[in-house]
Each structure stands twice: as C-alpha cells, then as structure tokens.
Amino acid sequence: MPQPILSIAGLSKTYDDGFEALKSVDLDVERGEILALLGPNGAGKTTLISIVCGITNATGGTVTVDGHDNVREYRAARSQIGLVPQELTTDAFETVWATVSHSRGLFGLKPNPAHIEKVLRDLSLWDKKDNRLRELSGGMKRRVLIAKALSHEPRILFLDEPTAGVDVELRKEMWALVRELRQSGVTIILTTHYIAEAEEMADRIGVINHGQLLFVEDKGELMRKLGSKQLIVQLQEPLEAVPDALAKQGLELSEGGGTLVYTYDAHAERTGIAALLAALSEAGLRYKDLQTRQSSLEDIFVNLVREDK
Question: Least buried of 1, 100, 137, 177, by fewest C-beta within 10 Å?
C-alpha cells in the first residue's frame, strides 16, 4: 500500500477554558484525492487545518506530512502544504505578481518566474499580474490567495471554505479550478458546509461535528450505505392521521394529509413496496399518483448531525 500523503493520528485540541475543539481525530489522506470535510460552523474543521499547517499547537496526537512529522520536522512538513484561508487578507497596494512571488520567498525558495507565470496563467490571473490587489474583484482576490498558496509548489492544498460568500457562477468556476489542480497532481482537502460542494467535487467525504470525525467514506459508497429512497403516495382524499392498520409501515403524512411518505432501503432484497400497496388497498385508501425520490447527501448529513447531538 502506498504511504498516505497526510496521516493524522489521535489529534486533539483542548483550549485553556476546557473547550474540546478536537477529540482524538484519526485520518489518512491518499495522494491525489479530493477530500471534503463537511460539518456545521464550529465543528472543528478550521482547528484541524490550523494544527496540520502548524498555525495552532495540538494538545495531543501526531500529524505526518509526506513522511515528515509536523512538529519535529516543521519546515519540511510545512513546505509540502499550501493553505487558502477563509479570509481575504492581502496587501491591497501590492501587485499580483509581487504578492505571489513574495509568498514563494517566505519558504526560502529561490525566485522562479516561470513557475509564478504558470500559476498565474492556470488561475486566469496572467493579464492581472501588474494590477494592485485593491483593483481586483472578490473572485479574483480569491484566485490570488490560491496562487499564493501554490507559489512554493506544495503537494497538498487546503481550501478552508473556498466558496463562502461567493456567487453561484464563481463557485462553479472554483470547482472546475479545483479539479484542474487535482489533475496536476495536487492533493486537495477542502472544508465546507455547502453540501453541494462536497457532493460535486469530492472523492471522499468526512463528516466532522463537535470536534469528532464521525466517519470518512468514498462518496459513492456513502450514498449507497446511508442513502435511502422514498415512495411518495399522493392520496385522492387527505387524511388527518395514518390509519392504525398502516401504523407498522412507518409512514409519514405530509402536505396537509394529502401525501403519504414511505422510506425504504433501495438496495434491500425486499423493499416492502408491494406489501405497502396491498395494505393501502385493504385500508380502502385510493391514490392518484406514485413517485420515488432518492435521498441526497444533504438528507444524510442532516440526519447524522441530528443523531450526534
């Protein structure tokens, strides 16, 4: 088995006031994958990134970046990581070229104009290279943050809430950009609370809440395991309550009593639909339409977070 590019073991963080931001997190990230860490605000996503990047000290546990311990071999570990923070913190009066070149220098690397040019071209920033940052749109400033993070040729790129506060069009541009970066060999870890972002881009999805990593799964496997289907039965006459004869079917009434919702495992040998329809007929209930609906990652996430409270 190839060595994970990032290995996190038993990582914990407790602040002076006793707040546990992380609780013994274990996570291996494979080379070249896109991993999404999904969780509500305050779940521990940014704390995890801050510790891996050496910005915050852990209370316990270890982080190994491409074989380097991020405490004992801080420089070697940190040089492998690019970080794109949530906040747009840039020197407004610097030019794009100067600020990206300066970021490379912070890692003690020699100037490499050819690499900086490639990064700016890849990010559609080349024609803005002489612009001051204050002249750029919010979307372009975000691209500059990514360019700065890539200036020292890292193998891992952290994107902390990369599309927070941006419009839908720019969000889709960012998704396309992330895929291109992955194709160039960069491993990408992004945190988000946008379900669609994780569902659209990630190879694997981790769910974090209250400082605990609940699980990490292949996206397709996650949908298969936790996804369920619903049969929507539109009744001809609304009901005030589910009849006692149908109580064991686990039905829910919705839309003012006009619809019955039956949730089932689409991968089970027996879905129970035939038995349900027979029970409806025996109960004298007539329906005018049947529809099925696949649960989304959002449904799964909401249920998981609700269970974790």
Answer: 1
Q: Cα separation of 29 and 35, whole Å?
A: 7
Q: Identify the H or E element spanning 299.
A: helix 297-308
**Token pair 């749109």: residue:** 137
Amino acid letter for position 289: D
Query: Closest Cα to residue 285, out of 243, 230, 255?
Result: 243
Q: What are phi and psi of 31, to 5 degrees?
A: -65, 135
Residues whose CB falls within 8 Å of the CB of residue 189, separated by 6 or more in sequence, listed in order: 6, 29, 34, 35, 36, 37, 49, 156, 157, 158, 159
Note if the pTM is more than 0.85: no
Sorting pLDDT into bands at 50, 70 and 90, what band is 258? Answer: confident
304, 250 in Cβ contact below 8 A?
no
Distance CA 253, CA 241 (A): 7
User: What mean pLDDT do residues 78-90 have?
Assistant: 84
- The Cα–Cα gap between 234 and 262 comes to 11
pLDDT digits over 100-128, tens only?
999 999 998 999 999 999 999 988 899 99
Q: What would you report as the CA-atom Rg of the chain, rounded to the nearest whole angstrom?
A: 24
Contact 121, 153 (CB under 8 A): no
Give 3-state DSSP helix, strand, coil % of the chain, rounded to 5. Answer: 35, 30, 35
